[in-house]
Amino acid sequence: MEENRPKFKMKTVFYSFAVLLIFFAFGMPVSGYEWTSLPDMTYSHKAGTMTVMRNGRVLLIGGAAGDTDNTHALAEIFDPVSKTFRATGSMHQKRNGHCSVALENGNVLVAGGSGGRMIPELKSVELYNARTGRFSVIGNMSVNRMASPACTLLLDGNVVLTGGVYEGTMGSGNTIVDRFDSKRSTLALRVGELNAPRSGSGHAAILLNTGNILNTGGMSDYQSFASPAAELYDPVQNRSSALSIQPTGGPGHYAAAALPDGKVILMKKGDVTYPEYYDPACWQFETVLGAGAFKMNPAKSAIVPLRSGKILFFTGQQLRLFDPAGNSTELIDLPQQIRDGRCIELNNGQLFCADLEKKSAALLTLGE
Fold this sequence. Notes:
It comes from Syntrophus gentianae. With 368 residues, the chain is mainly β. Helix content is 6%, strand content 41%. The strands form 8 sheets. The chain has a 5-stranded mixed β-sheet with strand order 1-28-27-26-25. The chain has a 4-stranded antiparallel β-sheet with strand order 2-31-30-29, with no helix packed on it. The protein has a 4-stranded antiparallel β-sheet with strand order 3-4-5-6, with no helix packed on it. It starts with a helix and ends with a strand.
C-alpha cells in the first residue's frame, strides 16, 4: 500500500494542473451576476440599432420584422428605471443596416442603411430629438451607405461618417468621408478619404484620445477584405494613413472598443485567436494573453468596456468577462432567448442585452 501513495499524489497534482490550464484557456464561471427578464419589445428590429442616450434610456431604431422586405421606420425606447418599452416617433425613411450615435446635446443621429429590396441603399441622415420624441431630416450624405456604415462622435461633438456600401460598384465599400456638424445640424460632404474602402459589421471606427480615428477591418467589396487592416484618420487634416505596424490577424472582420486608459482593445472575428491592445502613444499592438484564445462570430459579436475596468466580450455564443487588473477571464451563462443578440452598458452600470430580431431582452447585473 505504501508504494502506491506517491503515484496517487502524482495523479492528483497532474489533474489539478490540467484543471488550471483549462480555466486559463476557457475561463471560470462568474459567480456574482444576475439576469433580470424584460417584457418583449414593441417591434422587431432585425439589423436595427440600439443607442444609449444621454438621459440613460435606450433608443431602438428601425430594422426589419424578419425579411428585409419588412424593413420599417419604427422606433421605441427602453426605460431602465421602469424596465419597460414604449413606442416613440418614427423615422421619415424606413431603414436597416444603418448607424446611430448619441450626441452631446442628448439627440441621436441616424445615417444610411438600406430601405429594403426596393430601396437597397440610402444616403439620408435623420436626427432624433430626445425631448420631443420626433425625427427630423437633416439631408443627404455624398454617397449611399448601406451594410453598417460607421458614425463616430468626435471630441468636438461633431460626427464623422465613413464606410458602407454604395451603388454602381458591385457592392464595393467606399473611402469617402462626410461630417455632421452638431451645432448647425448640417452635413459637410467629401471632407476626406480613407486609404481603403470599408463596409460591413466587421469595420470598426474608434475615436482615440488623440482625436484621431482608428479604422480597422471590414470588406472592400463582397469578396475581399479591406487592406490595410488598420489605418488612422485625422479629422483635423482630413487625411488617413496606414499604420506602419498592423494587427497580428491582418485583414478581416474586427470588433474594437476604446478603453479609459487611451488604448483600444480589438480582435479579429471568425478565427480562434487572442485579443490585442493598440496603444496610440507608441503605435504598437500587444497580444492580450490573459484574455485567452477564443472565436468571435463574424456578424454577431462585440466588445464592451465596462465602467469597472473589466472588458466584456460578446462572442455570439457566450459572454467572457476579462479583468485586466487580475489578468483573468470568467464566463457568464447567456439566456437562450438572447444568444444571437448584443449587449450595451447603461449609465447605471447594468448591461442591456437584446436579440433585436426576436424582440427579446434582459438586464445583466454584475457583482463586484
